[in-house]
Amino acid sequence: MLGKEEIISPNLEELKSHYHSIITLLGEDTEREGLLKTPERVAKAMLSLTKGYHMDPHEVLQSAKFQEEYSQMVIVKDIDFFSLCEHHMLPFYGKAHVAYIPNGYITGLSKIARVVDIFSHRLQVQERMTLQIKECIQETLNPLGVMVVVEAKHMCMQMRGVEKQNSITTTSDFTGAFNQAKTREEFMNLIQHGTL
Predict the structure, then answer these.
(1) Is residue 158 annotated as a catalytic residue, yes or no?
(2) Correct CATH for 11-51 of 1.10.286.10, 3.50.50.100, 3.40.1000.70, 2.40.50.140
(3) What family is it from (predicted)?
């Protein structure tokens, strides 16, 4: 059975107060049974969804950095993520695909997914998140190259504004060996067609 995630923050009470005010400003009755605990629930949800501000992704990679002579592409694909668009604070979600070519050092595979989690648990835009994941891995591991591709659906496009339900946004960024079209193509082929 899954346990509850404990949300502890000195800002919790102030956030609850603000959400109480917001609900009131929207025209609702905060004393209605269904809304009594909503300010606290939303405050805790927002603290959880933005916990990446209090985590160091470089430290995560360093915690499992191992000397290794392997020098071929390492790919962690289909990393699920959820984030909040900084423009409307509505969710965007999808998959990140990350590759790097080691240069004497590797990291634990789960640490790559953790880096994605840390950057996605902040108010974000997809383009910046893609860049941040790439830069973090490049700076911490100093590999021969890094490539990141992120595919996401944005609720701010689905629920409001243009209301396009099926659009997917793809962003990519790369360094080093991935500047060669052949290397990028190999990565793209592996994430699109590689199966277990």
Answers:
(1) no
(2) 1.10.286.10
(3) Belongs to the GTP cyclohydrolase I family.
